[in-house]
Amino acid sequence: MSQLPDPVGDAFAGPWRARHLDGATLGEDRALSADVVIVGSGAGGGVCAEILAQAGLSVLLVEEGPLRTSRDFNMLEREAYPALYQESAGRKTVDEGVGILQGRAVGGSTLVNWCSSFRTPAATLAHWRDVHGLAEFTPEVLAPWFERMETRLSVAPWSVPPNRHNGLLAEGAARLGLAPKVIPRNVKGCWNLGYCGMGCPTNAKQSMLVTTIPAAMAAGATLLSRVRAEALLHDGSRVQGLRAHPVDAFGQVRRGVTLTLRARHVVVAAGAIGSPALLLRSRVPDPYGTLGARTFLHPVLLSAATFAEAVNPFAGAPQSIYVDDYLWPSDGSLGFKLEVPPVHPLIAAVVMGDFGTRHQEFMAGLAHSHIVLALVRDGFSPDSPGGRVVLDGYGDPRLDYPLNATFWQAARRAWQAMAEIQFAAGAGSVMPVHLDARPMAAGSAAEAQLARLPLKTGRARVVSAHVMGGCAMSPEPRGGVTRPDGCHHQLEGLSVADGSLLPTSLGVNPQLTLYALAARLATGLAASLRQGGR
Amino acid sequence: MSTPTPHSPGVAEGLASPGRRRVLAATLAGGLALASAAWWGSRGDGSRLDDPGHVYHFLDAADRAVLVALAGALLVGVRPAFSREHGAALAQGVDIAIAGLPPRTRDDLRTLFDLLTARGGRAALLGLGGLADAATPWQHISPAQAARALAAWRDADLALLNKAYAGLHDLVLGVWYGDPEHWAGTGYAGPPRL
Ligand SMILES: Cc1cc2nc3c(=O)[nH]c(=O)nc-3n(C[C@H](O)[C@H](O)[C@H](O)COP(=O)(O)OP(=O)(O)OC[C@H]3O[C@@H](n4cnc5c(N)ncnc54)[C@H](O)[C@@H]3O)c2cc1C
């Protein structure tokens, strides 16, 4: 446990104590009511909580993960993944083709994300207007919301030199004549440690835990942690609240105890996968079968290189450089964005799917490894339909997302582009993260290996930390689950305000888009609730 | 078959369908999740995994024998070296990690361990690994033999076997490299003191 100040933890132990209910300690049924119940305390839920509570509305913020604050963040993977991530960081698509990282704690994925903060690209918004009918989504309309959230969360380009891991991406790209750029990050007084993914121990990261959630608490909100929203209460036309169950210290739902939460309005912000799952469990009207469909992942390919120098890919701000030269290919194929991930031993050992000598060689060389990631911009063409959220026999969500030929074409180009950059930066060898790949030296042998790699689910390692869609916005009920203002097309008293709203992936890391969208939706919602509407 | 555990109370209620526990090979299609041990670290007293007081809630003695035999292969070459004396610590780490996984994944793992410990399934799975005598007790299977079986599952054309491999890989390597004592060979010095 660190000795650093933990003002949020202190406030929850002190003045806010009576307004925080920890489901793990709850022994009997409870009934609560408020103007608004918000499900999920991540990017969308956190922003809504602040705005709605400050508008004078009574707010219940419901989160299935635990409340953990900076004094708990001891930078150990083995504690962070089970405590702070969905399915202990082991969530996978139905065929296990993609591993999915999502947060599950107060603060949601913002508690464990890597701080890259980008506005929605103009090209993405243009696509939404042209193809998805979202006419009001122009850069001009959204600009004030971006500005507001950038200020609120201290977003600014990373101002100190990148760590070596990012620096090598910049050097390699520059040598190839590409245009590496500096990533804006939502940090304040960052110590440049590199543990963003395990909860920020210094409170530098401006996650929802240290910004909007304390503001909502200060404005009178109530937090229910380790409480899982099970199903909305509705009569087919209007939502009256929801039924929830506590979650125990091991993260398991305790269905023997029930909380009944009544509200004028329910905001669902349980994240893509979590939000469609709640609506599916609630059997909300879904006349056009859009619920849970078109869920996108920015599926990520990885390329691992070895350098003679120490790279220490586990040290320092994890993401500070990006390369967008391949993001919008002119032939209309799926483009990809290049960044690097933080690389710590547990996650590295798992992501490298082999075992034995080759695995040991990789682990022994971890400090000299350089891993680039390519996140593929899915959802922009009919041959990139994304996946669908379904429920298992326990009511828990799963994402069925088969990787198709269009994706694999992008994958091969991505491995090529990443290898070229790594060789240009001086890598001794490069290896696509794929069970059939071997470390390769620059030259024709590398090209031959890349051309031969089987494009097969399970052989290539594909991961995602960006889940988007499943409750898409559309002006037409046929086109999606929600209206452009986030309200549900069929049910009154219900809106969605998180990553599940997106009609496609983004082509950039999602958090800033979601902050801006949620701020805009919540501001509109606050106004109409104050007038007695919705 | 899956046995109810102390950490999945009430799963029989709610949305769970009565047929869910049927052991169909296809149910293994569920994610066998990445694992790490949550609660030993958070005891905060530096207590070790081979805590003799640990009460196994998921892995029984037969499961542990399988796990340790396969871990011997999955961890071949690690520094410091894995030996069967580390087995109890590893099994406890895996047991604790499984406590935090969703019910579906726990069912899948139950199915997998049942297949590996029961004679029929074990023979079929090990036979694919080219083991001459699939009736050899797990305690007597060498790391080389276990490695052949694991490699066969990894490379099989059957998704079921690939998933069994991936699940065991992630649990064993995740628990191993989650332990600060096992970072020495990687050049990772661990987090700074704050
Ligand atoms: C490791 C990692 C790194 C990332 N790095 C970046 C980055 O650098 N830049 C960036 O822009 N984005 C990044 N992201 C993605 C970004 O954090 C997410 O896109 C964003 O937080 C999503 O916001 P959200 O509101 O949709 O969902 P989340 O932030 O995931 O919040 C949803 C919350 O709802 C809770 N919940 C779910 N179901 C229920 C239920 N039934 N009842 C109660 N609560 C429920 C969940 O536990 C969770 O806390 C990263 C994500 C991860 C996991």
TrEMBL record, chain A:
Domain Glucose-methanol-choline oxidoreductase C-terminal, first and last residues per copy: 387-518
FAD-dependent oxidoreductase 2 FAD-binding domain location: 35-67
SUPFAM superfamilies named in the record: FAD/NAD(P)-binding domain
Domain Glucose-methanol-choline oxidoreductase N-terminal: 83-300
Pfam families referenced in this protein's UniProt entry, alphabetically: FAD_binding_2, GMC_oxred_C, GMC_oxred_N
TM spans (from-to): none
Protein name: Glucose-methanol-choline oxidoreductase
Species annotation: Oryzomicrobium terrae
Automatic annotation (TrEMBL), chain B:
Species of provenance: Oryzomicrobium terrae
Protein name: Uncharacterized protein
Highest taxon above the source species: Bacteria
InterPro entries attached to this UniProt entry: TAT_signal
